[in-house]
Amino acid sequence: MLYIVGVGVCKGHLTERAIELIRNADVIYGSRRALKLAEKYIRSEKRIMSYNDAEYKRIEEESKNKNVVVLSTGDPMVSGLGCKLNGLIEPGISSVQVALAKLGVDLCDVIVVDAHAKKPENLNELLKFRHLLILADKKFDIKIFGNRKVYLMENLCMENERIVFGKGSDLEIKSDYAIIFVRR
Amino acid sequence: MLYIVGVGVCKGHLTERAIELIRNADVIYGSRRALKLAEKYIRSEKRIMSYNDAEYKRIEEESKNKNVVVLSTGDPMVSGLGCKLNGLIEPGISSVQVALAKLGVDLCDVIVVDAHAKKPENLNELLKFRHLLILADKKFDIKIFGNRKVYLMENLCMENERIVFGKGSDLEIKSDYAIIFVRR
């Protein structure tokens, strides 16, 4: 069986269900960060995974006669592994939730945009309807917001967490784990 | 101190952080369902709360000299208590996440709409951009989707969970915990 398990973004985000799945795994895959977040409960072999189709295929094969757990930082269905691997999904706390909790904004008042390694479309049109919460990396051009004031949240729950508020034109993204909040 | 703590929607959704806050509370408020989900870890007095401004104000007052935990089913920032009470938010797994995991759809490809006790606007316009995930109750008119096929998910993780797929005109919402997924 193959389980894709969200481990959250902060220490202590693991759910009871996720812990149970991790404890019962025969082998566990994940990024260095995801493995670290789940460390306390890992009893089996752990492997740092690659993120490409060949690896996904191989892991799916392996899960035919083993309990394989693939860890996903945050939630597997938030710009995560959930759509890439064919297995059972166990939700985890995403960076979107941590950001909204800090901002005091409800998910039903925003549109979440994935701008990781891609240029998002329709930002201006979407802004007519809702605030935007943009998942971004260093390559994202935050200057496009010009004089508009935005929140830039980087490395949430990591040692070097940084949250700044200012005009888009004055800000610079320094991390590949960035979230930008743009008020409607 | 006042903590608004998400307890998730399924058994076993509590995070380690949520469990810690619940264990250390002097008093715990919540709906019957939320208190049930957290039951195992409650050591203090528990109180079923009312959902009105006077109650929120009273709880905020009480938290000035006590550790007060208010439980929120799902996540406090998903059509939740997070915007109504002034306290520290601890995220939990929301029904939105459970629904997306079942559907195999990423949060960044949908717009989440709150149609609980209100008529949502712009549904047709929003559908031009993304799939919709609508949090609805019995009063929501699912027939507006006519011939369009939608998923109707009710009572996720409860005893009477029901998931159906069909034309909007053929479906009927029987629960106040309903989620409708409409493909773009």
Topology summary:
2 copies of one chain form a homodimer.
Chain A: E1 2-6, H1 16-23, E2 27-30, H2 32-38, E3 45-48, H3 53-62, E4 68-72, E5 88-90, H4 95-103, E6 110-115, H5 123-127, E7 131-136, E8 149-154, E9 162-167, E10 178-182
Parallel strand pairs in A: 1-4, 1-5, 2-3, 2-4, 6-7
Antiparallel strand pairs in A: 7-10, 8-9, 8-10
Assigned CATH class of the largest domain in chain A: Alpha Beta
CATH topology of the largest domain in chain A: Cobalt-precorrin-4 Transmethylase, domain 1
Name of the CATH architecture of the largest domain in chain A:
3-Layer(aba) Sandwich
Could you tell me the strand content of chain A as a percent range?
Answer: 25-35%
Uncertain regions spanning at least 5 consecutive residues of chain A: none
Could you characterize what this model shows?
With 184 residues, the first copy, chain A, is of the alpha/beta class. The interface between A and B is large, with 45 and 45 residues.
